[in-house]
Amino acid sequence: MLKQLSTSAFFCAKRAYSNVTGKINARKYVLTKYFQGEPKQSDFKIVEEELPELKDGEILTEAEYLSVDPYMRAYMIGYKLPTDMIGGQVANNTAYFGVKEILYPKAGETIAITGAAGAVGSHVGQIGKILGCRVIGFAGTDEKCEYLQKELGFDHAFNYKTANIKTALREGAPNRIDCYFDNVGGEISSTIMGHMNKYGRVAVCGSISSYNDTTLPKVTILQPSIVFKELKVEGFLVNRWLDRWDEGIKANMNWLQEGKIKYEEKVYSGFDNMVEALVGILRGENTGKAVVKVK
Amino acid sequence: MLKQLSTSAFFCAKRAYSNVTGKINARKYVLTKYFQGEPKQSDFKIVEEELPELKDGEILTEAEYLSVDPYMRAYMIGYKLPTDMIGGQVANNTAYFGVKEILYPKAGETIAITGAAGAVGSHVGQIGKILGCRVIGFAGTDEKCEYLQKELGFDHAFNYKTANIKTALREGAPNRIDCYFDNVGGEISSTIMGHMNKYGRVAVCGSISSYNDTTLPKVTILQPSIVFKELKVEGFLVNRWLDRWDEGIKANMNWLQEGKIKYEEKVYSGFDNMVEALVGILRGENTGKAVVKVK
Question: For chain B, percent helix, then strand, then coil, each to nearest 5?
Fold first, then answer.
């Protein structure tokens, strides 16, 4: 049983069960050492704790699936250790608000997406197609690119590990880029911003390329593109639109029912394999949303 | 005599005079070689040309002062050579629209400015003070910093060549930065964005630090700050607000008359010294606006 304390924060990596005394215990991941490079099992200990009694208005739910997302690597800095590992529910409308509020693409415009085969990227691309845009994606394997083009309807998808990015941009975006959904940061983002149109918009959703680095990497300076193309580059975390949560969920549900949006899941098994799952998605093992099946 | 073809573009570096035949000739700078590093006199030739006759609605004005600005270094790429050198009038409301439309600071917020002693930077800081903000500036000499603090009322000014930027930010902006007016790009901008508050705004007006480089330099990646602080980073060129030119001029005139804004000028002498003036401002010789007195 998992105590649902809020829509985000506290709790994903926590599994609870009733014991013979009727009290409710939970297991959780506690970070005991700051990450160096990739997260390691030895950076955590799994702690069992007794949950407080429910108060009026609180509910207790059992977690069947836990979410694993790149931000979980990036957030665990600056806390006094040991501290509970963060995590969230299995819910995604990050893509919806990022596209609608930050990129606001018009039909006929071109959208570029990095981390395009991930949970958010693959969703962004499909919303772009629904809105009548040309969509090009960058992902880390040829299989992912094929999936994006054949299954999800991307106009072009390129393997960023093997493609020449500038050539890919010329081929995939002959009218250049109007909107860029940036999941990765890094040199590829500098190159893409150099290929944008005047008044282009950039939604910065993540910086996966740098999460495992101890010191932040250096990449080609962005300011010349930003000023001479008058770009607007905006970072966002989805809880900014917490009061519009329902709107995002409804829109996505409608598109799903109409068959306009598809999704893939990468399922890891077992609460004890949370760290393995986190390392996996940072390496790009997943296509679509990554989740951990608790039992 | 200078033919006023538009409010920007064509022609600042052009000087005309009546000759004995009554025709009107002008001299102009023509770029014959792409810049490598600092601009050099040998990258140009000065060409004399006969101006076409005036048509209805056109006027001819004599240039007494010509403007010299950092963007003139940055713009001269990608043209088929030889081409006329760009330039503009002596008029500045860049600061007004950058502050009002991109930073929209609230009283009590903290504004950081790089290239703070330049024409635009010194203007931005004074507008910030008028709006009730805390203002900190970064400039290239101790004398400029003293001028910013003692003459223009900046709360703090630091010599970026000798100061530790992180220490300066902690001292000058104990409540961190809400608005950043970026004239320079470069590593200092990455450091400042790392010291910003959530929902901070960045107005990217220039990238002076990289204008003389043949290939763009690499600096610490910005995306982690942009996403986790949900920053909005927007580049702009002032001609976006051409239809509101009068508004900017009137606001500045009022502040000048009320003694709320002061300005300095660095005056270079002679049309033949335009290149020297351009190199000078890229090296940071000027405090305030740089102009060339034609005669």
Answer: 35, 25, 40
Nearest CA in chain A to B203: A227
Is A60 a domain residue? yes
Interface list for B 63-82 with A (CB within 8 A): 74-75
Residues A101-124, mean pLDDT to the nearest whole number: 96
Nearest chain A residue to B184 by CA: give it: A223
User: In which band, very low, low, confident or very high, does the pLDDT at A1 lie, cut at 50, 70 and 90?
Assistant: very low
* Residue A191 forms contact with B (CB below 8 Å): no
For the stretch B76-85, pLDDT in tens is 888 889 998 8
Residue B262 covered by a domain: no
Q: How far apart are CA B122 and CA B135, in angstroms?
A: 11
Task: Give the residue from B222, B232, B240 with the most A CB atoms within 10 Å of its CB, the best one to mutate.
Answer: B222
Residue B231 has pLDDT above 90, yes or no: yes
Per the structure, the count of domains in chain B is 2
User: Whole-angstrom Cα distance, residue A241 to residue A231?
Assistant: 23
In terms of domains, do A75 and A131 share one? Answer: no
Print the domain residue range for B16: 2-90+267-293
Contact indicator for B79, B23 with CB cutoff of 8 Å: no
CB contact under 8 A, A230 and B236: yes
Q: Is the dihedral of CA A278, A63, A86, A67 positive or negative?
A: positive
Q: Which of A218, A224, A232 sits opposite B185 (nearest CB)?
A: A224
Indicate whether B89 pLDDT > 80: no
Q: Quick check: B282 and B76 in contact, CB under 8 A?
A: no
Kindly list the residues from chain B whose CB atom is less than 8 angstroms away from the CB atom of residue A210: 221, 223-224
Please name the residues between 83 and 102 in chain A that touch chain B, using a CB distance below 8 Å. Answer: none
In terms of domains, do A102 and A82 share one? no
E strands, chain A, in order:
2-3, 14-18, 24-31, 44-50, 60-61, 65-67, 83-84, 110-114, 134-139, 156-159, 177-182, 196-204, 218-220, 232-235, 265-269, 289-293
CA B238 to chain centre: 10
Under the banding of pLDDT at 50, 70 and 90, the label for residue B238 is confident
| Residues A11, A139 within the same domain | no
Q: Cα(B186)–Cα(B138) distance, rounded to whole angstroms?
A: 13
**ipTM confidence:** 0.84
Q: What is the pLDDT of residues A141-160, one digit of tens each?
A: 999 999 999 999 999 999 99
For residue B61, pLDDT beyond 50 = yes
Contact partners, residue A197, CB within 8 Å, separation at least 6: A175, A176, A177, A178, A229
- More confident: B274 or A166: A166
Report the distance separating Cα A185 and Cα A187, nearest Å. Answer: 7
Please list every residue in chain B whose beta carbon sits closer than 8 Å to the beta carbon of residue A182. Answer: 223
Range with lowest mean pLDDT among A189-203, B115-129, B264-278: B264-278
B243 and B169 within one domain: yes
> Which residues contact residue B60 at a Cβ distance below 8 angstroms, ignoring those fewer than 6 apart?
B1, B2, B3, B4, B16, B24, B51, B54
pLDDT for residue B28 is more than 90: no
The reply to whether residue A221 touches residue B207, judged by beta carbons under 8 angstroms, is yes
Co-location of B232 and B279 in the same domain: no
Residue B106's CB is within 10 A of a number of other CB atoms, namely: 11
